[in-house]
Amino acid sequence: MVTVNIGMLHYVIDHIYGAFMHRTKLSPLFFSRGWGGSKLELLERMIKDLFPEVEGQNRPPTLIQPIWRTVWETRTACLREGVFRTTCDEQLISALPPESHTARVAFLVPKYVPPQKTACVVHLAGTGDHTFDRRLRLGGPLLKQNIATMVLESPFYGQRRPMLQRGSKLLCVSDLLLLGRATIEETRSLLHWLDSEGGFGKMGVCGLSMGGVHAAMVGSLHPTPVATLPFLSPHSAVVAFCDGILRYGTAWEALREDLAVQKTVMTLEEVRQRMRNVLSLTDVTRFPIPKNPNAVIFVAATDDGYIPKHSVLELQKAWPGSEVRWVTGGHVSSFLLHNDQFRRAIVDGLNRLEWKEPPL
């Protein structure tokens, strides 16, 4: 009788999927146009400004006024889509591709329930998630528990994707930092809108993989307590691009050649070390502890070929009071099979927040 190590099988599936996606000629490599030049230098400076030693890191988010249209309506629910100008400052807007200047959101809400008795969670995109559909399917069943879902289309994705970019393969390293910084600013503004304009009683932010990293950053920087729910997420982009499967999909030679043009000669190993240094800016353990760490729930996979266990545990250690939950599977299989556990974490995280006092 042959016994199969299911955990190893999940891990192998991740690597087979990664090899198909990132080591074949079917898809271009990440960062084929190099580092991003002056844009990268700008972002390195601006991201350092997010950290707690900088005065005013809890500045209030920018207020937005999305323009809404109704997509469909039933007896119990309504789906709307909205657009607003990105809330990045002018320096960042000038670095963003024009296609990314307008942010798009989908907003699924229960009808006939007052907002002060409703929670809303903003769902952020994982790598390759260009549409609203998957995240709406994740959030849809939560309507029965009076939890609304707001889905943000990431910069560089979907209708916000630059014309020259193929799929999710960002052209420059600076694009990855730009995507993250713009996502943080826009999500904070959406949470502010849900609070001040929407009147929601509780709020949260969640995301899968890359979206979970961004959700953790937003939860850390938001000025009021929000449920923070990173799913299958590392503590830093270093884990994905330097240690994990995505390293096989990265254009290391192009990055080395870009440095050579700038009169900097490096070995490939030195190029990888420079990438580590740049992406260390995305290390969530450097961010402030969220206002209510008890409402932080990480959901991680036991046999994740993309995200090693130690990366998740570093986050939990950095944020005392947070919780880690484990699902059996790899990155790909958990993404497909464990939506119920993700929904349970959303419900439990929101339950750990107090309801907002209604205005007098």
Automatic annotation (TrEMBL):
Gene3D superfamilies: alpha/beta hydrolase (3.40.50.1820). SUPFAM superfamilies: alpha/beta-Hydrolases. Pfam families: ABHD18. Coiled coil: none annotated. This is PROTEIN ABHD18. It comes from Salix koriyanagi.
